[in-house]
Amino acid sequence: MSANEQPNRADLGKDPSRVSGMFDQVAAGYDRTNTVMTVGNDALWRAATTRAVAPRKGERILDLGAGTASSSAALARSGADVVAADFSPGMLAEGKRRHGDLPNLSFVEADATDLPFDDDSFDAVTMSYSLRNVQDPKKAIAELFRVTKPGGRVVINEFSTPPAKLLRGFYKIYNAQVLPRVARLAGTNSEAYDYLNESISAWPDQRTLASWLREAGWIDVAWRNLSFGIVALHRARKPRA
């Protein structure tokens, strides 16, 4: 973000243009800030997501809310054809700059609630830390279901609710007090990380997200807590018939 550019601050109304503009502004330093903010756990969470998706050569995979395409690139290295989709052109541009040399990775600007893909297009779909930023997350889950082939799979990794009461208290303090300071030290839009704290606090727990997946038609819904439930990895499958 340039010195003369005013920070774009999204809120829990999650207006798509404001959220997209906010991510445009933090794109250049986004991965660096996340690594500092999570004390390096972001790499571990990304590896867990890749293992859960279990990409195979010849498959077509959608990484929705791909951001700078770090997760997309990890999936593409398996040999699968990966589409990195995001509604922030700034994030996609940063992803292309970093990973555009991968021949089986493509980039598409897309609205999660109105995906520009045909029905039954992907063997697997995934979202990491982005469903929370969608104005209508249930509609996004339904769109993921629509574009997944029968028998295909979904993996959603998202910030969640630690089961332990003591950890929940510490986590709230960390998000409210530490995250904005880390963002300022990293030289990025600290107001974006104020929004991050608000969006995490307002996000439902693991059981609720699992119920949304079932409502959309996904089956075999399960989740696994990572880092004591700070994030949760949800998995499900689209019925074959």
TrEMBL record:
It is an enzyme of class 2 (transferase). SUPFAM superfamilies: S-adenosyl-L-methionine-dependent methyltransferases. One of its GO terms (molecular function) is demethylmenaquinone methyltransferase activity. It holds the Pfam family Ubie_methyltran. GO terms for biological process: menaquinone biosynthetic process; methylation. InterPro entries: SAM-dependent_MTases_sf, UbiE/COQ5_MeTrFase. It comes from the Bacteria. Belongs to the class I-like SAM-binding methyltransferase superfamily. MenG/UbiE family. This is Demethylmenaquinone methyltransferase.
